[in-house]
Here is the input.
Amino acid sequence: MRRFYIDPGEITNPQPQIKGADVRHMQKVLRYSPGDRVTLIDGSGFEYPAVIEAMDKHTARFSIIEKKWAETSSPLELVVAQGFLKEKKMDTIIRHLTELGLSRWIPVVSERSVARPDSKRIMERMRRWESIAIESLKQCGLSKLPVISPVMTFTELASSREEYNGKIVFWEEEKKPLEKLFPQKPAKILVLIGPEGGFSADEIHVAQAAGFQSISLGPRILRAETAAISACTLMQYLYGDMKKNGPSQ
Here is the structure.
């Protein structure tokens, strides 16, 4: 069944509603009508098989058949702190990392970050990133929406007291390869990726003092967005669910 995102505040209503572009897509493209079935997702990790009860040009109303946990959720809580990049690159990263099972995304302003938007622009970007994540969620089969955290400075991130089973910073000048890093399978990992110019040696030393392991992604210099996608793919393969066969495999 086709999947549609619904506002979390709607899902508990007797007949929850969707408004806007998705309704037009149901009518004009999919030719849906009352009685057809869809799957609703609210970003919580649950799925809601539902029946369309009524539709007009702007609104669709549903009856929920059941609430069930999505089997596509990764057991790994994957948090990525991304050095701030130019706007379209950040859009690309949040789109692809959502597909890879990202749990939380933290934009980080570091020493070599070229893009440094003001607070108004940051709020606009955060709304756009959430919209991109929702669209990726509907496409890829996941049901848990990644949290888009407020922008942090590198110092704020390094000094954070949040608990993780492992913290990794990927650095192009590091020689240590990525191997099995942890004696036990971690439940929650923080991955730190640099901006276009990478991290400075001073920042790496600060990260290491804060408990990060610095790791190489191989002999080639990767673009920042490629590094983020590669790192998340590796984390899900080693510690998440990427070895698990899906319905199309």
User: Anything to note?
Assistant: The radius of gyration is 20 Å. The CA atoms of residues 21 and 244 lie 34 Å apart. The mean pLDDT is 88.
